[in-house]
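Bench log, entry 3. Co-assembly request; chain sequences pasted below exactly as received.
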Amino acid sequence: MPRHVAVIMDGNVRWARQRGLPSSAGHEAGVRSLRELVELCCRWGVKVLTVFAFSYDNWVEVEFLMKLFEKSIKSELEGFISEGIRISMIGDSSRLPKTLQELVSDAEDRTKNNSNFQLIVAVSYSGKYDVVQACKSIAQKVKDDVVRRDDIDKSLIEQELETSCTDYPYPGILIRTSRELRVSNFLLWQLAYTEFFFVQTLWPDFGKAEFVDALTSFQQRKRRYGRRDS
Amino acid sequence: MEKAVGSMLSQIFENLVCLIRKFIFCVLSVAPLPNHIAFIMDGNRRYAKKRGLMEGVGHKVGFLALISMLRCCHELGVRYVTVYAFSIDNFKRSPKEVQSLMELMQEKIDDLIKEESIVNRFGLRIYFIGNLKLLSEPVRLAAEKAMLATAKNSKAVLCICVAYTSTNEIVNAVKESIEEKWDEFCVLNASGAGYGLIKLGGSEGDEREQLIKLIDIEKHLYMAVAPEPDIIIRTSGEIRLSNFLLWQSAVCYLYSPSVLWPEVGFHHFLWAILNFQRNHSYLYKKWKQQ
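Structure output for the full assembly:
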């Protein structure tokens, strides 16, 4: 079982259009899918789930998604606290409305000691932005004489990436729905050895059966990390 | 007499195949074409095992497959080709295998820069991308010689990733961009200017923002010699990047046919381009809807 599963939740709008519904209905159905996936992950021993809500490149549906995000945190927070689920957000939170920033900060604070399961929501996030902000932190530390230039290595960068909020920053599997065969600026550094699973299903239709397919595929793959087959 | 007829027929057949290929590429050119294709050449060892051959033979046949793909790219007019030849992770393999791969690489690099080779016929400029200091001396020298020998070629670019991983490339770029800014900072500090922002009423946060930007890192990447790839093709059915072009593949189309690298051919290439074009037109529609 992979310890960390990453998901690009794509297809909400297409799902809604196929049913003659407004795109908001697609996003709401998407939230239901996410809730189901969180439950399955908790039950099956996955420790971390990182989900890609949207990045810089998709501010068209922003207003509605912000409200939905706010509504979801408010309704799910007590449940997370009681079930030992930790919630974290990665991405450029400065672009979110102030009320949402405070809500997220509060949710992160209140769940930071939970250790059963961690849900990481990537909002206004891009893999390149993550590396650049890590680089900025390191540059500042070099300037402040906290770190020497010679000490800059792989593990220093890992510590400064936003995914350092978890003990398992490297997803074993990345699932992308709606058959888009690309990463779309989601995680970057962290996907070095991740197995990709692209599935035709649209996100609101992604459920237990599809998740089982993805996990089965993951378990059958031979991960060599550059070495030879045994 | 029969031999001459046979050879004539063979020539006619070859010309016909060539003509059909040209026609197919002509038709493909009606739709958007990729400017940069990257290949993860996976499956050489599995190919050798499948055919009961010695392991080294798989890599040799793999080299022929590379030439075949370079020919396809040249005929289609693809300006940039990148291949993942040897990862830093591959150094973990048995010393015997690493040694034989290094020897093969040196042999093939020397072949590539011969006057009559396709590299010169296609006008390919070669770059060796990676931490070349990790290579053995003869291979590193051969690589440097090849880069020098092809520096004047200007029709297309071939980036050969050796002793490469994307994370190593990024660490190096981060280090170099901080080094560059450090020198700038020292000069400014010495002249009493600093970044000047705090004196002007800027905050410490603003100063941090000025330290390093995306563009600073990008210009120090080994792959700064080429634009980002449009397609990454990984053969042998594995669907992962294995620390290849993580930075550059942010919005790139990933194609994973199950064919093993030594068996890759014209029709796989054609299929990859068609899929790219279909995906490209879908993305364009989606962008227009937004």
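Chain B has eleven helices and six strands. Confidence is low (pLDDT under 50) at residues 196-202 of chain B.
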